[in-house]
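tool=predict chain=A
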Amino acid sequence: MTNNEKKHFLVDNLIKIMNDSKLNKVQFADKIGFPEAKWNKISNGRQDIDVSEISKIAEKLRMREIDIYTYPDKYVKKGKEDTNNEVLITMKLNNDLKDKVLAFISENTNLEILKT
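tool=predict ok
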C-alpha cells in the first residue's frame, strides 16, 4: 500500500479502538502483540495488515473478530423471525367455562365473534 492509498477499513477500526481505549501507538502495539514499528507502519498506511492477524489481535483485545470488522458497532446475529403467529387450540368446554377461557386468552378483549 502506498501513502496515497486509503487505509484498509480494518486499520481505521483498530485506530478507533486504540483511541477509544485511550492508548497511544506504543501502548496499543504492545497490547496487540505487534512491534511498535510494525503497528506504526500499518496505522500510517505504509504496510498492509494481514487479515489472518485479526484473529490474534481480537484475542489480545478480548474482542470477537466480527466486532473489529463492525467497530464501533457490535455484531448481533438476527434470528430467523417467525412471522407465523397463528395458534390453533381445540377444546371442548361448556358455555360458562368457554367464556372464561376466551376472556383469559384474550385478556378480556372483545371476542364476541368467537362465541358461537
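The chain has two domains: 9-70, 86-116. The chain has a mean pLDDT of 82.
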